[in-house]
Amino acid sequence: MLKDQTTNTALPWPLKLARMAGALLLLVGIAGLLWALLEFWLLYLNPERILPLTRAIDSVGALDAALMGAGAGAARPMPVANFLAWALAIVLLAMLGRVAYWAIRAGASLLAIPLPPSPALPTAPAADEADYGLPRDYQPSHRAPRGDVPSIRAPSRGGNRRA
Q1: Is 141 a member of any domain?
Q2: Would you state the torsion angle of the CA atoms of residues 123, 127, 130, 133, taken in this order, to the nearest 10 degrees?
């Protein structure tokens, strides 16, 4: 039986249902993400797995025949259909990964268990109370002493000299 960890009482049935749905969403999301990663890896190891999708795109659209001419026959390469098949596979697997991420995130938020309130943390002193290591009677001087600061005037390049 699901119990609330803060009060050790049984949870109401809508909360139990939400948490079970969250667990299911989390598992489905993890499985979808793992499947997308596995499919990416298998396509990397065995690029010939893309050929059925390439043939389907070529048979439906006949892009290569339209772009390259119809004189090559059945043994011709399918560069345009192959490029489109790879692009489509990457986009579809990326979309599957994104949907799996959303499922994982939603499942985790449904499974979230409210934590007991944390003890109050010490706060930093206000800006007027902070001493920053300076003595209490320190009054900043807004003018620098004249004799201690070297001149930062740039040397003249001879443009406006008086003779």
Answers
A1: no
A2: 130
Global pTM?
Answer: 0.53
Q: Dihedrals φ, ψ of 140, to 5°? A: -65, 140
* Domains identified in the chain, total number: 1
Q: Is 158 left (phi over 0), alpha (psi -120 to 50) or beta?
A: left
Contact 38, 21 (CB under 8 A): no
Cβ–Cβ under 8 Å, residues 28 and 102 = no
Q: Which pLDDT tens digit goes with each residue over 18-75?
A: 889 999 999 999 999 999 999 999 999 998 999 888 888 878 766 666 666 655 555 5
Contact partners, residue 140, CB within 8 Å, separation at least 6: none
DSSP designation for 31 = H
Please check whether residue 79 is in contact with residue 1, taking contact to mean a CB–CB distance below 8 angstroms: no
Give domain status of residue 161, yes or no: no
Instruction: Please tell me what DSSP assigns to residue 149.
Output: S
Q: What are phi and psi of 91, to 5 degrees?
A: -65, -45
